[in-house]
Amino acid sequence: MTNPDPTAEFLMLGTCDYPEHVPSDRWAPYAQMQAELGLRFVRVAEFAWSRLEPRPGEFDWAWLDDAIAAYAAEGLRVVMCTPTPTPPAWLIRAHPEILAFDDQGRVREFGSRRHYDFASPVFREHSRRITRAVAERYGQHPAVVGWQTDNEFGCHGTSRSYGGASEAVFPAWLQARYGTLDALNEAWGNVFWSMEYTDWAQVKSPALTVTEPNPSHVLDYHRFASDLIASFQAEQVEILRELSPGRFVTHNFMIFESGFDHYDVARGLDFATWDNYPTGMLEFFAPPGVDEDLKTHYARTGHPDLVAFNHDVYRSLMLGKDGLGRDGAGTPNGFWVMEQQCGQVNWAPYNPLPAEGAVALWTAQAWAHGADVVSYFRWRAATMAQEVMHSGLLRHDETPDRGFAEVADLDLTQFPVGPVPARVALLHDYESLWIYDQQRHAAGLSYWAQTVTYYMALRSLGVDVQITHPDADLSGFAAVVAPAITLVPADRAARWEAAAQGGVPFVFGPRTAFRTPGGATWSDGQFGPLSEMTGARLLQYDSLRPGVTQGVTGAFGSVDASLWAESYRVTGAQTLATYAGGPLDGQSAVIRHGNATVIGAHSLDLIRAVLRDVLGGAGVPLLDLPEGVRVSRRADRTLVQNWHPHAVTWGGLELGPVSSVVLGGDWTPTDGKGAKGE
After folding, report:
1. pLDDT at residue 330 above 80?
2. Is 151 labeled as ligand-binding?
């Protein structure tokens, strides 16, 4: 590895290490190897509660003291964790009420991880106690530069408990929100199916209903559970700020995690981190446009746009819905990838060995999307328990694995830190996600699928994207894309309309403003408070089963929509495309009213064509990128990536299989593939 001066502002690397998993005589040699590899950070102890406190109130710090000393001797910086994702057996057996319930009413037992209910007062007490104990011990240790709270909130479907402590306090949360049962019944529409409540104690979690639960009930339970996670983390952050001043505090978020509002949970952190596993992501989260052939094609790299989307979510997260900034001193400028896949994983339906060059490509892509640190999971492959099939930088026998070699070959001086010049905002909102997915109405479509399809269209046009909360200030963007913001209160609509009147073009997708804040539909129909801005009303919506398509024709050519099509009755908007054939024949499919364009049909080709038109008119430079080739920009550099398993010639460049090249920030293709905005 070519190592820059450690004080210079270039991408830095780290690893996740588990000294408790190996004999103590390995700690010093591992630290030496990590430093020689060019790693700067080591994350430790997120799952070490049973070793730190083997019996109630009896602490064993010696082993972790020695491990940290070994890291410090090599100049490595330690990211310490609160060990709360794995409460030990002695605590669970003494207080089984800590355990959560799944949505089938079953207790989720001890024996893996994340086995707790965020609402449990007993667990909250022990969370504060162990956090304080660890922070008192290491909070001002010179080698400890920061903290990770807990680990991967929501992993394994643990963001919500549907019984026990959570269910017990849900009515009080509702009473604080609505004040009276009449207001609750009105907001939820409980007159429907005689669901009205006459006592707060009658309200339970929205689980095990005979048929689907009331979507408003579900929406509020999701809000309630998200608030629990936010308050749980806030307790830990407060203790860490008190006992470890000057160190950063972060949390490692997850791939497409949907169980809580990340904007709220991130409040009070210094920056976000996330855990990037591209091959597993491809199997679990690919949208409908990524079919089995594409999954096979990208099996050893993951799909570039799925990875990039998560990078952009977590780079943008700390902006928050109200401009939230960092709290604390000495923080990096950008987000981190706290866990970066560096070989095969163990948890997906298929777990192929990554392609040669994939680890280097993933690292470069993370930098280009704003990461200041990439930390590889894990140092040595586990030799015991659930993750023995998961790779590390070292194999089980301690020999360097393929990812180790790729990290060793990195030239970090290619990767200066600095801003990502994103001029296009893509709006993303967890409440819209929750209510959309509760009543998808089309089995193959979801909030993520619809949102990522628009994102893929933007990336295929070579556009750098900032994922943005819909209530953020949008006035500084060249254009705003809102693929699936289905929940639009009146004040949000007013802010959007003001931004549009100020010259910012908006592109909306299907189901925009379909819902009220309570989860019902507007009494005057979609678009509710956006009706004046869009100059239209919903006419019809059509859920298309696989194999059934709906033609669209007009200013953007002729395409076939799949999965979803909705039409509009224009009240001032211009119709740019209509449906051809089928029950929507002749009805408006794409409309425009001033700076608002609405796309009613789900079609990547149509979305791409409309975005090309809108962004070109807004002066956003565009590129014609072939499938598998992506361009990202940061700090006056341009990263051109080839995600194919074969070489590609594009833009005057010869790109090797699974590779990237760093060019100047003013680079443009030399073969006419670029299209400058007007």
Report:
1. no
2. yes
SS3 state at 640 = strand
Together in a domain, 431 and 401: no
Q: Is the separation of the CB atoms in 605 and 551 below 8 Å?
A: no
pLDDT (average), residues 32-55: 98
* Alpha carbon distance 459, 611 (integer Å): 11
Does the annotation count 53 as an active-site position?
no
Are 60 and 155 in a shared domain? yes
pLDDT(166) > 90: yes
Residue 167 known to be catalytic? no
Q: Are residues 226 and 111 located together in one domain of the fold? A: yes
Q: H helices of 4-96, where?
A: 27-37, 49-52, 62-73, 89-94
> How far, CA to CA in Å, does 482 sit from each of 124, 409, 456, 646?
38, 40, 13, 35
Total number of domains in the chain: 3
User: How many other CB atoms are found less than 10 A from the CB of residue 323?
Assistant: 11
Two tokens, residue 6: 């450690």
Give the per-residue SS3 of 569-604: EECCCEEEEEEECCCCCCCEEEEEECCEEEECECCH
pTM for the full predicted model: 0.96
Catalytic option among 46, 53, 152, 431: 152
CATH code of the domain covering residue 438: 3.40.50.880
The torsion defined by the Cα of 17, 252, 65 and 111, in degrees rounded to 10, comes to -80
Compute the distance between CA of residue 627 and CA of residue 617 in angstroms, rounded to an integer: 24
- Active-site residue, selected from the candidate residues 339, 387, 406, 566: 339
Indicate left, alpha or beta for 295 from its phi (over 0: left) and psi (-120 to 50: alpha): alpha
